[in-house]
Amino acid sequence: MVIDICVAIITLAFICLAIFFICVLYSAGQALKKINLMLDEFQPHLDPLRRETQILLHNTNEITRDLQDKMEALNSLVQAASNVGNILKESSASLKPEPPQPCHRTAEAFVELAVLGLSLWQKLKKGR
């Protein structure tokens, strides 16, 4: 008799557990339906945002490429200006009273200065 009562209690507990599990699954299904409806509502709002984000990314890439090109152009100008500065230093050092140096070195420096000056002038004109 005690075993029959225990079996009946276990059966009732199992039935209650099964009913509770069914209720949880039903609630989860309802929640998933609501999430699906919410996603369906937001989808039209997300598509324009996605397109706008792609356009923004494309524009950013173009600006980055343009900046890289301009930086490369400036690098050559800065290098030319640096070369002119070095030659001016050498030229000013050659104007200081020193022991006599061969004339060809000073003339070579002035020719190099002239070439770099013309190169810098052409790059500046080209950059405008």
Model description:
The chain is rod-shaped, with a radius of gyration of 42 Å. α1 packs across α2. With 128 residues, it is mostly helical. It has 2 helices and no strands. The chain has helices at residues 2-95, 103-127. 93% of the residues lie in helices and 0% in strands.
In terms of topology, how is this protein built?
Blueprint: H1 2-95, H2 103-127
Helix pairs in contact: 1-2
Summarize this entry quickly:
This protein has 128 residues and is mainly alpha-helical. It has helices at 2-95, 103-127. The model has no long low-confidence stretch (mean pLDDT 85).
List keywords for this structure.
mainly alpha, 93% helix, 128 residues, single chain
Number of strands: 0
Name the average pLDDT: 85
Query: Helix and strand string, N-terminal first?
Result: HH
Radius of gyration: 42 Å
